[in-house]
Amino acid sequence: MSSEKKFKYKPRSIREILSEMKDTVDLILDLAYSAILYNLEDVVDEVKRLERRMDKLIYLIRIETSLACRDVEDAERLAGILQIATASEVISDAAREIVNVVHYGHELDEIVLSALKKSDERIISTSINKGSTLINKSLNDIKLDIEIGMFVLAVRRKKEWFYRPDKTFILHEGDVLLARGLEDGVTLLKRKASGEIQ
Amino acid sequence: MTKEEIITMLSDMRDISNLMVDLAYSSVLYGNESIAKEVKELELKVDKMYYDIRLKTLDHTKNVSTPRTLLSVFQIAHAMEDISDSASDIAQVVLKDIDLHPIFKEAVKYSDEIIKQVEIKEHSPLSQKTIGELKIATVTGLLIVAIKRGDSYIYGPSGDANLLEGDRIFVRGPKDGIKKLKKLIRPKDEE
């Protein structure tokens, strides 16, 4: 009990909290699936961290919605918002469940690995080799989303992970990209990263 | 044989549960009841799949020497079922007709990626073509996550899937891509 950090209340808008919750849901599922598919311990840790963060956010949004409520009409709207927030939190718990499969040291069945590889939307991990045209470019320069339909979920540089890098993020040689997209995009991204094509 | 079936079911379950989360948030964003109902329908499908996948996995235990690793199949399928239930809870808010979207709209406005439902109208230049021919991903940066044809869905359609008049496609990607897609699908006689 005493090891739990005491919660300090800092006012934040409901919109901000909800927005962070939704962004977290968008990221956490992809991270969880890729963590078990590629056996990435750091990403497992990030999923756990995000899930703990969601616990804090749901607590915070309960406080904020209680404070914002003045009449029945408010209560109805806020109940809807709380329902969305709660469901988002449960999704992050599910992501945690997914990585728990490896966390507990259970062996993953090959069925799970084959199923994750089979999904139409793939998540790949690819490193940027010497000679790749992606080096020293920002994500905005290379527009992988628009050009080849690939979304960069995270970048690993040496031992550090950058999650949801923004458009100004500049890629370096040796960076490892975790990205999501369809098969065609996956193939193109791998070839670009290896320096095989421009 | 059973093994292949389980793999396919689990991979479909992942695609559908992911799709449901995207659809659920966008139903709230646009206050769109038909998308919300779609999510509810999909939830029933996932329930059935979750049941079937457990049965098949139990049947499969007799074919393997170490059935205990199959526990991971149960656990992942369970997580997917939770995800689909939560998506359905989110969509439920729209069906209750509570007016909350101004604040939610604000909250999701800044997301880079959006999901949208687009109908292939009569005489659309897209109909009778395959997704591969249309190069939608290359031109617009959008992924077609599903096609709804009548009451059935095709999830994660491959490049050789045909689009037909009356199909509704669910696409995900950058906002700019939607504008480009709208140009692509406009029937020729409207130009």
Low-confidence stretches of chain A at least 5 residues in length (pLDDT < 50)?
A: none
Number of H/I helices of chain A: 7
Major pleated sheet of chain A: 4 strands, antiparallel
The secondary structure category of chain B is alpha+beta
Instruction: Determine the mean pLDDT of chain A.
Output: 87
Taking the sheet with the most strands of chain B, its summary is: 4 strands, antiparallel
Distance between the termini of chain B: 51 Å
Low-confidence stretches of chain B: none
Which properties best describe this structure?
heterodimer; A: 198 residues; alpha+beta; 4-stranded antiparallel β-sheet; 4 strands; B: 191 residues
List the helices and strands and how they pair.
The complex is a heterodimer of chains A (198) and B (191).
Chain A: H1 14-38, H2 41-68, H3 72-103, H4 110-118, E1 122-127, H5 139-142, H6 144-148, E2 151-157, E3 160-163, E4 176-181, H7 183-194
Antiparallel strand pairs in A: 1-4, 2-3, 2-4
Chain B: H1 2-29, H2 33-60, H3 71-95, H4 101-108, E1 113-119, H5 131-134, H6 136-140, E2 143-149, E3 152-155, E4 168-174, H7 175-185
Antiparallel strand pairs in B: 1-4, 2-3, 2-4
